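Recall that a protein's primary structure is simply its ordered list of amino acids. Everything else, from secondary elements to tertiary packing, is in principle encoded there. The following example makes that idea concrete.
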Amino acid sequence: MVDRFKKILTYFIFLLLVPVSLFGLYTWASLSWVYSSGERAGYVQKLSQKGWICKTYEGELILVSMPGTQAEKFFFTVRDETVAKKINLTVGERVRLIYEEHKGVPTTCFGETSFYVKDVQLLDDTKVGK
């Protein structure tokens, strides 16, 4: 009877650990490998901290290509609190966001978007167009 219980317990642990391990490995891979990277310039309209367990910063960047055209929104995620503080200091000013795109992240616990901002640079409007 004890041997049978040990076998059932072993199978149960195996059936539990294998999917959890595979999920963890897949999550690590999707957050480690970069699908694309780039920059977007515009005005940060919003940055707020969200999440029940995994707290991330979610934001909107307004992209204005030409005067008089409809503004496009770029939604992004910030996982680093230092970068989020830098972005908060530049809200309302023209900035360049440097980001990486991670495809296939399995849950929104790591961010609501697939675009993760790594750095922000304030753009000097007096130098634009020169």
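The first helix runs from residue 2 to 32. The CA atoms of residues 15 and 103 lie 27 Å apart.
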